[in-house]
Every structure is written in structure tokens, then in C-alpha cells.
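Troubleshooting log. The previous run stalled partway through. Resubmitting the same two chains, unchanged.
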Amino acid sequence: MARTVLLHVGTPKTGTSYLQDVLFRNRRTLANQGILYPADRFDAHFLAALDLMRLPWGGLEAEAVGAWDALAAKVRKHDGTAIISHEILATASRAQAGRALESLGHGDGAEVHVVLSVRDLVRQIPAEWQENVKHRHGLSYGAFLDQIRDPERATRIATWFWGVQELPDILNRWGHDLPPERIHLVTVPPRGGPPNLLWKRFSLAFGLDGVDLDLEAERANPSLGAPETALVRRINRAANRELNPADYRPLVRELLAHQTLSRRTGSPRLALPPDAHPWVSDVTSSWIAEIERRGYDVVGDLHDLVGEPPVREYADPDNPSEKLVAAAALDAIKALLLESARLRHNEERLERELLDTQLALERSYLRPTYRWREKLVRRLRGSSAGRGLLKVYRRARGRSSREA
Amino acid sequence: MSEDSPGVRRAWGWVAHLRAGGTTPWRDWSGAGEPHGRILPGAQQLELLRRLNEAGEAAPELATRVLEASAPGRGRPDLELEGAVPPLAFGPRPVDPAGLPDDELLRVAAGLLAEDVHAAGRREPQQPATRRWWRRGRYRLAGDVVLTGPVRADLLRQGRPPGGRGASVLVLGTDLATMYVHAWTARSLSVGAPGWREWLDPHVRRGTLPVRIDLARIARSWSDRVGAERVHIVLDPAELPRLVGVRRPLATPVPLSADATDLARRVGQALGLLAVPTEKRALLRETLRPRLAALPGPELVLPPEHRERVHERATHLRDALLRAGYPVHGDPDSLLPVDRAGAPEPSDAGVLALALRLLLEKKN
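Second attempt completed without errors. Output:
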């Protein structure tokens, strides 16, 4: 039974990919310190979260069958500290959260702590819209904002957004059975602070100080500027019908968004519209007051949630500068051309290899012994006795395949 | 929600009432009760239990499962009861459960039915009869999978597996409107599908045919492999026995109602989290489908507004097949849509009624 379980349940876009990457790559080092990060693949905790919440995810759920129970069993077997981390856990219902805590040993000897990393809505709102765009959505920024501001929250977009972002509600669901001292909030520092400050906060919350970890990131979820996001949205609207989801991910999300457009510098940032700031400020103030009232452990500063003031020059991604979108599109075309060239070279190489193989095969067919054997087989096939002989021969030779 | 208040006690009283088989709606409930669990169940779960009680007698085990369930997939979270808790500053608004759309209750019900189907497991596989090699009429079946499935199974039972040297390829089809319904049904009972109209409308608007019912494309693909002379288009099922060399008529598909098909689709979505794809497909077809086929209801038909376009598309299909010169068994015009009585789309209320019936059928 794990003595302590640190369960990191979100929120998205708070450095979770980086944290999970560090934990995954350093799991042996952690194990030497008695800390278990139970994952045999990078997305193991994501699959477990899908299983816990019975959440379909474009077919990935097929790999998730039974994943939560398997993960929980590993945690229960471990004698020490165990860490579980995935941001989509933020959207779990109270019943699912209760089942998760129970399966990890809560109420049966294990001390379960819930960790929630949090970032200001001023950055989270545009980031969530951008994530939607990078997941094939064609929704405009304005429509997205309208949906999340609608008090009914009737749409899937709004339900998901608040499910993973509304801090007091997430903590209601996950913290229902836990004392406040076992709930830890890690605040993401404002832009422009020391580069490793967030890691220091994570390290403190997860008790990793003093563990010699390799912090070189291999995975991250980079952001796009306003014109680049507008471009991806236009690509979605133009190509979604014909581009399969299986092709979208490597070509649009990875090649175009992550590897090409996110590297463009100098583009105007995707930001919260200035007229949405008063609303966000009201929501945030009420959250801060509520969290302070509840007395959770805060690693960082709750006032990090206030966020930056409105940008001076707002770049509306629904009405972007066409010049900037065209420049981004040029980079995208270049990336696609280079990728096409790489694939063509691959194709040519494979064609050459195939031709070589065919020639080698033909050479072997041309040997006189092959021709004699072929002639014999043809004759044998012509009579029932011959077919019987062939059958006996093949059985004796141990050949499992038969003629087509 | 752990605070003790008159509203919370009223809610716990309603929970006990529903557990005891009560059917009083929340807004008419005024009793009180003691907390009986870790958390108050969500409004969706409570209203589903109330509807089950209205529809029949829910066993205590079923009531517990309903109250402890979470709706699978994306959608609204478990909601609080309006009036049980003071207006909240955070989280989704509390609701009167009677006002919840059927779709919300269906999410919970489909999750529970998926658990039932998974627990019931697959039927014992039937041993295929001994191969009868001396029989004539080697065949392969292609085309509309709702038509080919029962025929293939029937022939296997008779010791007549498909394939073999020189086998004829029989491409089965029927009127295009029905084939659209079949294609959606087949997807709903296998890999999964969006809702009927969400799936159908773009196909009709763009004039595209799903691969499984594009008979011209299927025939062409087989023709390239085996030659056009061995490809037969079969539009009259009465011709099939002769073509495969059997005397008696072959099995035909048992139809599903529009609501039953949509329920299968929803259960399939939830089952995807409980079973790997091959098992999921088998559970849907072997375990759930026979139960659904036994339930009455109008079959799904093409919505009237699509008739003209589908007729046009069917005409193209017929002409393409005739132009290619494949032998056609049956009237080529039988590819053209015909008016059939039925439901142009499933209704959430009807699907929910079926779900309640299936949940109550399983006496825990």
C-alpha cells in the first residue's frame, strides 16, 4: 500500500506536459528515492484517466480499457510515495473522483493528496480556444467566448471549458472527501518571471526537492500567435471534410502547428479581448476569495491568478491581419513542401528496394532447378494421384501454407 | 454538498423515496430524510431512477447502480437539484430534474446498458458445419453488410464457407435509401457513428456514398482482381440460393427499429471504454442486437427532403453498374429509392423508453 499518493488532476495548459515528461523520463531515478511514477508509456496516465471517466477520445479509448484499475493496483502495491498526473482528471465527476480516491487507498491507509496547478484565466481562455482549434474545431474566437460566457453552459465547449477550468468546482469534486491541508494549489507565475520558477513550485508540491532529475524537456505543448491560430482554423474549415483524423494529427497539429507555426516569432500574441477583462476579473476575484476561505495549501501566490492587464494592441484572430496570415501560410506551405519532398525521397527509395527485391526473386525463378520443380508441380496437379502425392510431400516437409 | 440543511434533507428524502420505487417528481416532493451516502447523486441519475420506477419495478441493485453511475463521454456534468442547495457561485446551475432533456438521461442509461452487455458476454460461438467441398457454387459476398452478414452466417452453418478457386463475387444491394440506413446501422453496431442526421446529411448534400454501399466501386475493385465476368450484382435476394448452389431460401436481416438502432449506437460508444474493438463489435452484434431486434418500433427511413437527391444518386449508381456490364440479378431499377413507412429519424424519447425497458428486463 502506497503511504502517500500525490494525485495531480489539472488544470490543462499549466506546464503539465513538461512535468509529466520530466517524471516519465526520470522514473528510475525517482524509484531509487522510493517514488513511484507508474507509467510504461508516456500517455499511461492519460489512458487511465479516459478509463476512469469513460471518455471516448477519437478511438484512443480502445487502448484505455482497464487502464485505471491497473494503475491503481500498481499504486496500492507500492510501499512509498506514488505520483499520478493528468490534466483531464480535472473534469471528473464527484462519483468518479470518489472511485479514484478509494481505488488509490483513501480510507484504507493511504494518505492521498490532490494537487491542482492553476493559471490565470487571462491566459487560459485564449489557450483553451487555441487547443480547440488544434483539435480540428472551426469555431471562431468570438463564438467560443460567447459559449463560455453563457450562464447556461449548455454546449460541449462550455461544459468542457468550465469542467477543467473552474477551480472552486474542480476542488469541490476532488476535495469532497479530503481535509484542506491535503489539497495543494500550484500557481503558474506570471509571464516574464524566472524561467524555472514553475518547476520549483512543482518540485516543492511533489516533494522532489533534492532529487537529481534531468529537467531537459522533450515534450511540450507550444502556443501559437493570433495570425497562426487564425490560419489553422481556416485550414480546419477548408480541409476537415477530406482529411482523416489519423492524418490531421501528424500533418496539421504536429507538422504545421507545433513544428512550424509555433516557431514563428514576432507575431501578435493570442490574448483575451480587452472587453472581456472586467468579467474575467470578477470571476477570478470570487475564486481567490473562495480558495482563501477554504484554507488549501497554496504553492506560489494566489494573486498570480489575477493575470496581466489588457494588451495595448489587441490582435483579433477572427479579423486578423491578412498580411500576417499570408506570411504564416507561406511558412506552412514551405513546411508541407519539405515534408512532401522527404516523403517523395522515401517513396523513391522504397521503390528502388522493391525493384531490387523483384529482380532478386526473378533471378531465383530463372534457375533451372526452379523451372524443373515448377514443371513437376504443374504435372502433379493435373491428376488426383499427383495432388495426393503433393499433399503427402507438403505434410512431410511441414509446410503450413497451401496453394491459393 | 455535505452541509446539513432543510434542502439537503429534502433531497435525501427524495433519494430514499426513489430507492423505494417512488415516482413523485422532485418539484412535488416535500419529505425529508437522513444522508445515505457519500454524496447526493446527480439530478440526471435521480430522474433516470424515477423514470425507471414509472416504467416498471427497478430492483434495489439496479437503483444503486443508477444512483452511483456517472454519465460516460462528454456532456453536462452531474448536476445539483434546484432547491436542494443554495444558489452556487461556482459550478453548473442546479436544475429541476424533470426539465432535463432525454438525451442527458440517455447518457447515463447507455453507460449502464453497456455494463450489462459487457457483463452478459458473448454468445457461445456456433461450430460451423463440416465443409462440403463437393457442393457447386463457390462464392464470395460483398456489398451492403447488413444484407451479406446473415447470408454468410447461414451458409457457414450449412458448411458452405465463402472463397475457393474461381469463386463468383456476389455484390449484394437493395434500394439506395435502405442502403444508407444499413450503412449507418452497420457503423453503429461496429466502429461507432455520429447521430443519424449528423451522419446522413453531409453524405446526401455532397452526393457521396459510404464505401460499404458504393456497389459500383466495390464491383470495380473485385473486377480488377478476378475479372468482370465473375462479379455479379444481386438485387433480388430470391436469386441468391441459385447463385450459391443451395435449394432453400437464405436468411435475411432481422430489422431494427429506428430507436433501437440509435440505442445500439449510444451503447456502443460507452462500450468502447469497456471492451477492445473486436470484442465490442461482437458484443453489439451477438449480445445486444438480438435483444433490440425483439423490440417493436418503426424502422428508420430516408427523410423526405433527401428523396430527390438520393434518387438522382441511385440513378447514377444503376447506370454505372449497367455500363460496366456486370450480370445483374434482379431489376436494376430496384436500386432507386421507394417510399416506405417508417421513422425519418430516431426520437430521444423513444430511445430512452427502450433503454428503460432493457434496463428493467435485466433483473439483478
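Takeaways: Chain B touches chain A through 35 residues (CB under 8 Å). The mean pLDDT of chain B is 92.
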